[in-house]
# Entry
Amino acid sequence: MAKGLDLGLPSYMGRGIITGITADGLPADIYFAEGRSPPSRRRMLRPCPDEGMVRMDANSETTVDQMRATGGNPDLLLYDAMMGDTDGILVVSNGFQTNCDAVWEGGHGVKLVGSERGKGIYHRIKEGMPMYQALHDGLRQAGSEVDDLRTARIAAARDYDRYPNIVNIGIVIRPRNCTGKGAMEADDVRVDDGISSLKRGEFVVYATYGVHNPPYHAGLPPNISPLNGYTKIINLDATTPDQLVQEVWEGLPKEILVGVAAAMRDASLPKGFRFASKNVKE
# Structure
């Protein structure tokens, strides 16, 4: 098992971003997805290196119509999980807030509710907005997911060339209040000031349902005032995208795992990033 990935939870973290510095001192970002429902598990993380991204796509055995027929919502299930470019910018997220394209371009032509081309986190950064503000405004626009739990949306952004050791992470969540009636408060957006103190081999795990116990989905969420209520530092030995994927894969429960993807800077490639992935269903 990968070091540090035994988080002592009742197994379900949802979707997660793992961001940090490899053992040989290079920046790297990882995304993983877990799923409990059949539509969630009929997906895969598909690298598209010529486009500089990793898409959360329907797997080769599933159509969007089949996803809908089993209660799945393509607006929440299909998205660009990673998006990078030759300038060294990389954005990772668990939803269409990555780039907010008006039509998800994974081959299915799915219209994404609330999306607006050019207004996602990635596009805001490319237009010159500071990463902190781009994360805040992009997550505010997307809002918490429109499922019954109002699942959190999470995102991370890094400039691999100018500030390789600094990562901004953010969350938008709609917490329940404490009246005992399960009522929901307004969406709350939190973005950190930039994580910059990580050592070699250290990574921050950041998940939609938190890395605390009990997890968010099991009851009332904790007070999210400290952003680190959703984060945990772990150590990884891997130094390449393929190795990172494998190490994280080995540390996650297979019965609910959908897939793992990793990205590292490679200026020799057309879009500037090298991706790797591994999925339960290819």
Q: What stands out?
A: Residues 15-277 form a domain with the Glutamine Phosphoribosylpyrophosphate, subunit 1, domain 1 fold (CATH 3.60.20.20).
